[in-house]
Amino acid sequence: ADARRAQEEPYQWQQARRWPELKACLTDRPMFEALREQVSEEELWGYWLALEANSKTRADKAYKAAWTKWKTRNSDKATGDLADSLAEMLRYAGRYGRFTEQLFRQSLRIDEKRLGLDHPDTGESLNNLAGLLQDQGDYAAAEPLSCRWETPARMNLQTSQRPSPEPTSEPQTHRTRATALPDGLVQRRNA
Q: pTM (2 decimals)?
């Protein structure tokens, strides 16, 4: 699906009140990927609100059925990105159910396998899953995930704070450098 189609087709189906066609459009994999690139989460979710109000369709159930047809591979980057994107959209919409959790877990497994435990993308996947578990009220399950990312992040931070082994003849100037930590926190330090 191209950008123009992603911007127009769901809108046209919604305006025509053609709910089965709108559902088919929104659950089509190429269209979903184009919509995530081209429209805001609010607009995408707006189509689902109209669809749910006028039919017996629920977004999470429709995407769960579509996921089995999307021919994903359990270990490739595209599948991990797609799982994360769909889970983020469902979480944004307040759909904190088991399917959303499964998508975040699948994305995390793929990132761990492809990138390793201490990669920032893996940390983002851990944070996404921990956030969903918190949204579900499962704080006991969320905390170890947050701590699991905290350790590699701090190790990377400590490594980046080590002084340079090479002496320089230039005068040292003090600059403040920001270092990203989990959950969007920033630590400032002198360089």
A: 0.75
